[in-house]
TrEMBL record:
Lineage: Bacteria, Pseudomonadati, Bacteroidota, Flavobacteriia, Flavobacteriales
Pfam families in the cross-refs: Pyrid_ox_like (PF16242)
Superkingdom of origin: Bacteria
Ranges where the General stress protein FMN-binding split barrel domain occurs: 11-153
Gene3D superfamilies assigned to the protein according to its UniProt record, in alphabetical order: Electron Transport, Fmn-binding Protein, Chain A
Name listed for the protein in its UniProt record: General stress protein
Amino acid sequence: MGNYKDLNNQEAIAKLKKLAEDIKICLFCTELTQLPIKSRPMSVLEVDESGNLWFMSSSESNKNFEILADNRVQLFFSKSADNEYLSVFGTATIFSDRAHIEEVWTPIAKAWFEEGKDDPKVRVIKVTPSDAYYWDTKDGKLIALLKWATAAAGLKDAKSDDGGIEGKINI
């Protein structure tokens, strides 16, 4: 992918929101200075107007204890079927705010919280990005595939525009 486009302010937040909410599931990584890094799949519930990413978790999960010890986290989103990728580094904060829990609650969360949204263990995690990078296609999946196929068949220079775009997201 040879096309770079760094994004700033509202354009950056819009790209972060589009990719994170479209891909939905990320690898949520903690204990970034220790090997092996702890990672687990998590579903983003919301990307707010400031670019913060929100997740739901149990107060008793190892992830929450790890965040309390070191709040630096890395999120990796990947949707290879659409050539969309997002990496977010930031800080995590754990909240027990009932109003926000109510706002982001989904019925599927009941699988983890027997008492539903009123379960005293329900927490929300806010990840505030400090560094983010994205990769996707500027022309859409079909056009990108055609460009790659043309290059693979030797009908176009592989170094020419492949339809990909990447850049830093500056919030």
